[in-house]
Amino acid sequence: MADYLLELQGITKSFSGNRVLDDVTLRVLPGKVHALIGENGAGKSTLMKILMGIYSANAGNIVLDGQQVHIGGPRQALDLGVQMIHQELSPVLDMTIAENVFAGVEETKKCLGIFRIVDRKRMDKEAADALAQVGLHFAPAKRMRELSIAQMQMVEIAKAISRKAKLIVMDEPTSALTEKETDILFDKIRALRDKGVSIIYISHKLEEISEISDMVSILRDGRMIETRPTKGVRREYLISRMVGRELTNFYPKREVPIGEVLFEARGIGWKNRVKDVSFSLRRGEILGVAGLVGAGRSETMSALFGVLRRDAGDVYLNGRKADIKKPSQAVARGMAYITEDRKATGLNLIASIKHNITSVYLRLFTRRRLINEKNEQNAADKYIQMLKIRTESREKRVQLLSGGNQQKVAIAKWLAGDPDIVIMDEPTRGIDVGSKYDIYALMGELAARGKAIIMVSSEMPELMGMADRIMVLADSRVSGFVERKDFNQEKILGLQFV
Amino acid sequence: MKKNAVHLSSLREFVMLIILLIMVGILSLLSPAFARLNNFINIFKQTAINGILAVGMGCVILTGGFDLSVGSIVGLSGVVAALLAQGNTPIIIPILSAIGIGGVAGLLNGTLVSYLGIPAFVVTLGTQNFIRGLAYIISGGRPVFGVSRAYEQIAGMNIFGQVPLLVVYYLVIVAAFAFILQKTVYGRHIYLVGGNAEAARVSGINVKDVKLSVYMIAGLLAGIAGMLLTSRTVSGSPITGSGYELDAIAAVVIGGFSLSGGVGKWYGMLIGALVLSVLSNGLDILGVASYYQYLIKGIIMVGAVYIDVRGRARMQ
Amino acid sequence: MKKNAVHLSSLREFVMLIILLIMVGILSLLSPAFARLNNFINIFKQTAINGILAVGMGCVILTGGFDLSVGSIVGLSGVVAALLAQGNTPIIIPILSAIGIGGVAGLLNGTLVSYLGIPAFVVTLGTQNFIRGLAYIISGGRPVFGVSRAYEQIAGMNIFGQVPLLVVYYLVIVAAFAFILQKTVYGRHIYLVGGNAEAARVSGINVKDVKLSVYMIAGLLAGIAGMLLTSRTVSGSPITGSGYELDAIAAVVIGGFSLSGGVGKWYGMLIGALVLSVLSNGLDILGVASYYQYLIKGIIMVGAVYIDVRGRARMQ
Amino acid sequence: QTETPVFTFCISHMTNAFTVTAAEAMTAAAEAAGAKMTVVEAAQDINKQVSQIEMAVNTSDVIIIEPVSTDGVLAAVSAAMEAGVPVVIFNQAISDPSRASTFCGVSNADLGYMQMKRAIEDMGGSGSVALLLGPLGSDGQLGRSAGYKRAIDETNGAVTIAFEETANWTTEEALVLAENWLQTGIEIDAFVCQNDGMAMGAVKATEDKNLKIKCYGLDATDDALRAVKEGRLELSVSQNTEAQAQASVDSAMKLWAGEEVPSEILAEGLIIDASNVDEFLK
Ligand SMILES: Nc1ncnc2c1ncn2[C@@H]1O[C@H](COP(=O)(O)OP(=O)(O)OP(=O)(O)O)[C@@H](O)[C@H]1O
Ligand SMILES: Nc1ncnc2c1ncn2[C@@H]1O[C@H](COP(=O)(O)OP(=O)(O)OP(=O)(O)O)[C@@H](O)[C@H]1O
Ligand SMILES: [Mg+2]
Ligand SMILES: [Mg+2]
Questions:
Q1: Please, which residues 188-207 of chain B have a Cβ atom closer than 8 Å to chain A?
Q2: Do C36 and D183 touch (CB under 8 A)?
Q3: Ligand 1 contact, A178 CB (< 6 A)
Q4: Domain containing C73 — which CATH number?
Q5: Distances from the Cα of D206 to the Cα of A25, D163, D192, angstroms
Q6: What pLDDT is stored for residue C4 in this prediction?
Q7: Which tens digit of pLDDT belongs to each residue from C90-127?
Q8: Is the pLDDT of residue D98 over 70?
Q9: With contact defined as beta carbons under 8 Å apart, do D53 and D76 qualify?
Q10: CB neighbours (10 Å) of residue D84?
C-alpha cells in the first residue's frame, strides 16, 4: 500500500551507545488518528523528535507522501507540513501569547513599500481566534509566564492546530488537562481528521486512545511491537502488550483506618486566586482535590506550603498552629510537595538523578555531617528500582530522561524523606499505566502507615479510584466535599461549575 | 479597566526613564551650567560612542550572549581608520575598512560561539586579547595621527547649527534598531532565541544564524564606533576602547536587560547609556572630587536599578 | 561496562587538565628555564592571588551569580592592611581588618543581590565603584608603603626550604573548598540553587541565604587575597586589583564552569587559574614580544576551551 | 568675565602618586592665586576626556589639560580655543602644540633618557637591561621609551635590552614579570622602570632572590625616595611636579587676564640618588 501519508522505516537511534530505538517502523494513513503508546522511556518522544528533525537517526528513512525526505531540522519538518505539540512544554515565558503562537511563522506586512514588518494587529487577532477555538479567552498580549501549565498546554494546542499541516504530532497533549479541555481538544482532532489531516497521538491515558484513535502502535523498549486498528481492542490487551504483564485492577485502593486530624487549613487566601480555603486532613486519609483548570488548586497548595506567601488564614499541625511561611518551614515540619511543574519547580534538570533524589533530605545521607556517597547511591538505586525509572546510570542528567521518568524522579525526591503529609499536584502526569499502579500502591502504603496525602488531579478516574474524600474547588473557593461512599462523576463535575 | 492596565504596564516600563528625568532635574537645580542646552547636546555627544556599543551589546545580550571584545574592536578599527584616513585618501576608504573590520571580528565571534559552541565569555575574552594584539601590531604600539580634515568632519561637524553629526548617527542607529527589534521578524527571533533557544529551534527558527548575526551586529557597530571615535579624537590609538565593553553592558543592564536573555526593550539601551553619562557629566560639572564620584556612582547605579526593579514589581 | 562508563566520564572531566599538561610539556620543550622546579613554584606563587579569587568567584558563579567587585575589595583591603601593617603593630590587626573588610563587602553584595533582588551585575558593578572610591579616599590615591618586615613574611616566607607560604595558603583554600563543595550539605545546596533556584526553594533550601553566603565567601577570599597581595608586594595601592574580577571569571570559565550556574567542579577552578598563569609565565620566559602575547593568549584560550568542549562531547 | 577666574583641570586619571600630586599641587597653586579650580579625571579614557573638555568650555575661563592622549585631544583643544577659552597643556606636550595657548611640562623623552643614561653609566657602559613599561601606547610609555632608545643607541650596541614588557604602572605586575625574567637565567644588569611603583616590584623580586641588581625608578615618590635612602633603589627621577603645576596656574592667570604667555615652559627633570636624597625626603 503506497498511500500512507508517512512512513518511518527502520529507525534506529542510540544516545552515547545506549540504543533507544531499534529498527522501528511506523506507517500513518492520511486522515487518521494514529495512537502511539508505550511505557515511559520506550522511545515515543525520541521517534517523534527524529521525525521533526530535532534528533537525527542512526539508521532508517522517512517517507512522506510517498517521497523519501531528509529532515535536517524543525524548519524542514514544518515546511513539509508536519507540526508537533511537544511533551516538554517549550513556551517563551517572557513573551506574549500571540508572540508564542506565531513564533517562527510571523505574519508580515509592507511598511513604506520597502520593509516587511511584523503585522502585530493581525497576529493578535488571529491568535485570539486560535485561542477562542480551544476555549481560552485571554488577551493575546498577556505574557506566557502568567498562565498555568494547563493553560500553556492549551496555547500550544491552539498554536499547532491553527497552522497549516497535514500531520500533527501530539505528544501527551492532555497530561495536564481536565476532561473539559480534553473534550475541546478531541473535537478539534475530529474536525482536523475530517479535513484529511493525520494525527499521531501519544498518551498514557488509555481511555483516550480508544475514544479518539483509529490505529494504535505499541512501542516497547525501543521496538515496535504491534500496529493494529483501535476498534474493538481491549484496554487490558494494550496494557499487557505495553508492559509485558497483565494488569487488571487499576486502583489498588487499600482500606486503612482513618486516624486523628493531622493537618488543618483555615481560611487560606492568596490574592484573589485563593479564597477562604479550609479543610482538615486525617492520618491515613487521601484527600483528592478536583477542579477545573484555573480553579486555583495549584495555587492553594502553594499557599499551604509557603511557596506563595499567604495573605490570609493559618495552617494547623496536630491541632497546633504551625508557622509555615516558607517551604523550608514546611519541609522541616514533615510536609512534602510534589509540584505540578516538574521542570520549573520540581527538578534540577542539569543535575544527576542521584543528586535530585537526595536533594530535599540531604541530611539523611550524611555521616558525621558529611555527605556519604554510598548512602546517596543506595537511595538513588532504591528509587530507580522502586519507581522503575528507566536509565543506564544513576548519574544520568535528569534533563536527558524521558518525560515520565523525570516525573518519577520528582516524586522520588520527596519520598526519600518519609514525610508525614504529602501534597501531590498532578503526580502521575506523563506516567505510564504500569508505573501509575506502582505509585498508587505506594500511596496506599503511605496511608497505611498513618501518613496523610493531598492529591490534586485532573483525572477524575484517578481521584475517584484513590481518594477517601474529594474537595472540589471552583473559582478559587471550596465548592464542596464529597465522601468516597458518595463518589459520583456528575456530582463532582457539578460542584466544579458552581 | 483594560486600558488602565495597559497604561500602568507601560508606566512600569518607564521607571528608569522617570529616574533619569529626576536625576536631570536634581542636577539642573544644583548647577545652572548643567541645565544649558549645549550641555545637553554635550551629554548626547558623550553618550554616542558607548551608546552605539550598547545597541550592539543589547542585541547580543537579548540572545543570552555576551561580548567582551567590542572594546578591542573599537581600538583596532580606530587604528586602521586613522592609518587610512591620512592625506587625501577619500574618507570612504577608512570608513568602510573600519566597519569591515568590525564585521569580520563579529563574524569570527559569532562563528565560534554559534557554530563551534564555545561559551561566549571565553570566545570574546579570547578575541578581546587577539584583536587588541592586532591593534598594537598594526600601529606599532603608537597612536596614529595626521588624520585628514575631511575625516575629522565625520564626527566633528554640526548640522542645523548646533547639532553634532555624532549625535545624529547615534540617534539614527538607535532608531534603526528600535525598528528592527520591534517591527521585524528578525527582531522577534532575537527575543525568541534569548527567551528559550530550544523553543525557538523547534519553531523552525535558525537559532545558530540568529546567534551568529547578533555578534556580527555588535562587531559592525563597534567598527562604526571605532571609526567615529577616531574622527572625534582625530587619532587612533591601540589602547582606545579598553573597558568599553563593561560600560556597554552596564548601560543595557541598567536599561533593564536581563543577562540571561530575552528581556529588554530598545529604549532601555538608550536610557541606560544616558543614565551613565548624565551621572558622569553632572558630577564633573558639580566639581565633585573624583574619588567621591566613585562612591556616588556606585550608590546611584544600585539605587536606580533597585527603584526600577521595585517599581516594576509594585505596578504588576 | 558500567565501570568503563565511569572511567570514561571521569576522563572527560579532565580534558582541561590534559590540555594544561600538554601546554606545560610544550613549554618545557621550548625552554629549559620553564621546566625548572623553582619555576613551577613560581607559577603557583603567581597563581595564588587570582586562584584564591577564582575560588570565591567559582562559588558565586555556581549559584548563577556574578561578582565584579572582588578586584576592588582586593584594592581596599590591601590598602587598609598596608596602612595598619606599619611599624610594630601586631600583624594580626591588618590581617583581620583586611578579612573583615572583605566580609563586610561580601555581606553588602549578598544582601543587595539576595534580599533586595537587584541583578548581581548591577550590584557588584556598583560596589566595585563604591569600594574603589573608598580605597582612593583612604589612601589619598597614593600607594602605601612602609609595611613591616613581619607583615612581609606572611606571604614572603618559605617553608620546607623552598615552598612559599603563599602557595600553601592557596592550596589550603582550594582544599577547603573542594571539601565544602563535595562533601558538605551546604556545598550541595550551592549547586542546587544554581541548577534551579525555584526548585531548591520548594525543596526547603533557604535560597536567599545560600546566595547571600556565596557573596560573603567571595568577599572574604578577596579580603584575604588583598591582604596577601599587600604582603607579597610590600605595599598597598588603591588601584590594585582592577580587572582581577575578569581574570577570576576567566579562570573558572576555562575550568568548565557555566555562567548560568549549577555546573563546575572544584578542580576546574584550580586548573583554569593554572592555565592562565602557565600561559603568562611561559610566554614571558620565552621572551615573546608583548604584542604577540595578546594574539597567542587569545588563540590558546579559545582553542583550549574548544578542545575541552569537544572532548567532553565526544566522550559522551 | 567673572570676579574670580574659574579653571578646570582635566587630568587623565587620579590613580597614582604622580597624578595625585599634580592635582593637589594644581589646586593649591590656584587657591594661592585666588582662582577656583575644578579637577575632573578621565579614567584614562580619551573619549571621556574629550567630553570633559567640551563640558569645561561651558563652565570655565581657562582649561588646563593633562592629556590622556597627546593626539586625541587635539580636536577638542582647537574647539575650546575657537570658543575663546584658552587652553594650557600640562605635563605632556600634545602633538601639535600650536593649537593650545601654552604648554607647561616636561619632556618624557628627556626623563627617560636621563634615567637610562645613569643606568648605563652605572653598568660601566655595557650590559643588558630589563625594561618595565607603562601601559603600551600611553604617552608616558612612548616618550620614556623613546628616551631609553636614544640613550641605548648611543652605546652602539654595548647595551642590549634583555626584556621589555608592560607592567601597566603597577607593582604587582612588575613583580611577576621580574620574577619570570629572573627565572630564565638570562643576564640582567639593571631594571629600568618607567615609574616608581614598578621599580618597587622589581626591587622586591631581586631581593626575594637575594640578587644585587640595580633598579631605577621615576617620579620621586616618597617611598621610592625612602628606598633610595635605604640603598634598595638606585635612583628615581623627579619631574618636578610642583613647578609644572605652578607654571600652569601662573599661565592660566595670565591668560585669564588677557596677557601674553610664552608658548612653552619646560620644567627640568632631576635625578635623586643617594647623594641628594636627604634634601627631598620629607
Ligand atoms: N538526549 C538524550 N540523551 C540521552 N538519552 C536520551 C536522550 N533523549 C532521550 N534519551 C533516552 O531515550 C529513552 C527514550 O526516551 P523518550 O523520551 O523517547 O521516551 P518516551 O517513550 O517518550 O517516554 P515518556 O512516556 O516518559 O515520555 C529514555 O531512556 C531516555 O532516557
Ligand atoms: N482568570 C484568570 N485570570 C488571570 N490569571 C488566571 C486566570 N485563571 C488562571 N490564571 C492563572 O492560572 C493559574 C491558576 O491556575 P492554578 O494552577 O492555580 O489552577 P489549577 O486549578 O491548579 O489548574 P491547573 O490545572 O491549570 O493547574 C495562575 O498562574 C493564574 O495566574
Ligand atoms: Mg515522551
Ligand atoms: Mg494545577
A1: 188-189, 191-192, 195-196, 198-206
A2: yes
A3: no
A4: 1.10.3470
A5: 76, 15, 13
A6: 43
A7: 999 999 999 999 999 999 999 999 999 999 999 999 99
A8: yes
A9: yes
A10: 8
Report if residue B30 sits inside a domain.
no
Q: Give the residue from A106, A124, A138 with the most B CB atoms within 10 Å of its CB, the best one to mutate.
A: A106
Residues of chain B with Cβ-Cβ distance to D65 below 8 Å are: none
| Least confidently predicted of A435-439, B108-112, B129-133 | A435-439
Min Cα–Cα distance to chain B from A485, Å:
45
What are chain C's partners, defined as 3 or more CB pairs within 8 angstroms?
A: A, B, D
Residue D268: DSSP 8-state = P
What's the mean pLDDT in A62-90? 91
CB-count burial class (<10 Å; 0-12, 13-18, 19+) for D43: middle
| End position of a domain, from candidates A192, A209, A243 | A243
Residue A340 maps to a domain: no
For residue A159, being part of any structural domain is answered with no
Sheet strands (E) in chain B: 158-159, 163-164
CA dist., res. A173 & res. A208, Å (int): 11
Verify that A367 and A384 share a domain, yes or no.
yes
- Distance from residue A302's CA to the centre of ligand 4 (Å): 10
Whether A160 is covered by a domain: the verdict is no
Residues in B touching D58 (Cβ below 8 Å): 33, 36, 38-39, 42
| Among protein residues, the one whose CA lies closest to atom 13 of ligand 2 | A148
Task: Tell me the DSSP string of A366-429.
Answer: EETTEE-HHHHHHHHHHHHHHTT---S-TTSBGGGS-HHHHHHHHHHHHHTT--SEEEEESTTT
B28 inside domain: no
Position C12 scores a pLDDT of 66
Question: What's residue C9's pLDDT?
Answer: 53
Q: Is the pLDDT of residue B126 over 60?
A: yes
What is the total count of domains within chain C?
A: 1
Of C66, C298, C305, the CB nearest to B127: C298
The three cell numbers locating residue A296 = 486555583
Task: Return the residue whose CA atom lies nearest to atom 25 of ligand 2.
Answer: A293
Closest chain A CA to residue B203: A104
In the 8-state DSSP scheme, what is residue D269? P
| Shared-domain flag, residues A485 and A383 | no
In a domain, B29, yes or no: no
Torsions phi, psi for C82 (to 5 deg): -65, -40
Residues A267 and A318 in one domain: yes
Q: What's A177's domain CATH number? A: 3.40.50.300
User: How much is the pLDDT for B6?
Assistant: 46
Q: What are phi and psi of B254, to 5 degrees?
A: -65, -35
The whole-number pLDDT of residue B2 equals 40
Q: How far is C220 from chain B, CA to nearest CA, in Å?
A: 20
Q: How confident is the model at residue A26 (pLDDT cuts 50, 70, 90)?
A: very high
Number of domains in chain A: 4
Task: Determine whether B316 is exposed, middle or buried from the number of CB atoms within 10 Å of its CB (0-12, 13-18, 19+).
Answer: exposed
Domain containing B192 equals 2-23+37-315
Query: Which pLDDT score is estimated for C11?
Result: 66
Q: Which domain holds residue A409?
A: 348-413
Q: Which residue matches cell numbers 563535595?
A: C182
Sorting pLDDT into bands at 50, 70 and 90, what band is B9?
Answer: low
Residue C31 lies inside a defined structural domain of this protein: no
Does A18 reside within a domain?
Answer: yes
Question: What per-residue confidence (pLDDT) applies to C161?
Answer: 79
Interface probe, candidates C302, C305, C312, C316, chain B, greatest B C-beta count within 10 A: C302
Cβ-defined contact of C196 to A363 (cutoff 8 Å): no
Please judge whether B188 and A86 are an interchain contact, meaning their C-beta atoms are less than 8 angstroms apart.
Answer: no
Tens of pLDDT, residues A366-421: 998 899 999 999 999 999 999 999 999 999 999 999 999 999 999 999 999 999 99
Q: Which residues of B touch A90 (CB under 8 A)?
A: 196, 198-199, 202
Tell if the CB–CB gap between B249 and C133 is shorter than 8 Å: no
Does A222 lie in the same domain as A171? yes
Q: Which chains touch A (3 or more CB pairs under 8 A)?
A: B, C
Same domain, A441 and A488: yes
Q: Which helix (H) or strand (E) holds A436?
A: helix A433-448
pTM of this prediction?
A: 0.93
